[in-house]
Amino acid sequence: MNFSKKLIKPIFYLFVFSSLIYFVEAFQSIMMMVTALLLISFAKYEDFKVSKKNAPFLFSFVILAFYYTLFFSSKSFKLIAESLLLFVIPLLSIYLYQAKSFSKDLKKIQFAYSISLSLLCLFFLAFYIYDIPNHHFDWYLARYNLEFYNKIHGTYICLWIAIAILFLADLTSSFKQFPISKKVLFFIMFILLFSGLIIYNSRNIVVGLIIISGVRFLLLKKQNKTISKKVLFLVLFAVLAVVLLSKRYIEDIQFLFENSFKNSTRYAAWSCSSRLIYDSNFMGMDFNLIQEKLNECYVPFHSLELTKFKINSHNQYLDFLLKGGVFMLLAFISTLFVKIKYAVKNQNYLYLSITILFAVSFITENILVRQYGIYSYFLCDILLLGSILGNKNHTRNEIEKY
């Protein structure tokens, strides 16, 4: 156990810095497995009991494991392993909070992640500027070039960036106490992170951050806490900057006026997914057949994009309905409910914000079917889930400030 405690810091630093070399997916996979093994080494299984807090997570894993091995002829141990990372291993993070070394370094780990994403955003900004002769500030072409040459989907990198922004906002909540050098560093990091968000500009992530700002505002009002006008101004300025500096929103408005939503690929994906869910009597279907049946359903839409790129359901809730039926959907939504309920109860507003961010992003993307999505979800849960599952002695409010 003592040896495992000594490994916490280097393993978690390597884990968050693996975002810098995202294009080496094998290293990220290795770090997730190593981190999982570390948490397993901390577990005290004789003390582990099923409770109303952890039952939805365990049920989510059991349902998926059942579907991936027994319910249909097809089997996928890879998907079972991913489900283990998503729903079971994070439950063991409760034991991390019993280690003072973890509690002491938690904010530093969050800061390391924010540094990594700031550096990535600096690279993306430099690439964007270098690529101006090719895209001429056309948002769609600029993002296509970024995704093509840098090999990462815009939604996932925006999700990573948004998490870094939330981490950094949490770290700078007591901004006045920092020396001028750190204040300058934080300011530069915020500029870089928002620049990356503006360049890639994933709508669901931007909407998620706006909703989070509104929720935090209402919570502060409810607690009768004074809200700095400067903070409100900065939030509004950031939102306006993201919206106005991208042509995407203007073009979206034009599309809505000139076309029907039924002409969009998302309508096709959602309607076909809903049709498959109904045909399966809401009990799920063989995961190996889902994409094939979606492709068949797309034929009447006569869309090159739908057939060429093999579009999935583009909705995490629909994806779990397809794979595990209504019971899986209810179990998964219950995990989100547990996070939100106990994050509010423990006043862990960082974890509340991150949960809202993921809940919104799930509406338009299958976040948990790609490694980049699993990485960010797993990272946030192992860092913060244990703080709301434990008793009051393990809440995040008592963790030493960075």
UniProtKB/TrEMBL annotation:
Keyword Transmembrane: yes
Subcellular location: Membrane
Membrane topology: Multi-pass membrane protein
UniProt cross-references to InterPro entries, sorted A to Z: O-antigen_ligase-rel_domated, WaaL-like
Alphabetically ordered keywords of this record: Ligase, Membrane, Transmembrane, Transmembrane helix
MF GO annotations: ligase activity
Keyword Transmembrane helix among record annotations: yes
Domain called O-antigen ligase-related: residue spans: 189-333
Chain ranges passing through the membrane: 12-43, 55-73, 79-97, 109-130, 150-171, 183-199, 205-220, 232-250, 320-338, 350-368, 374-391
A Pfam cross-reference name: Wzy_C
Protein name: O-antigen ligase family protein
Organism name: Flavobacterium procerum
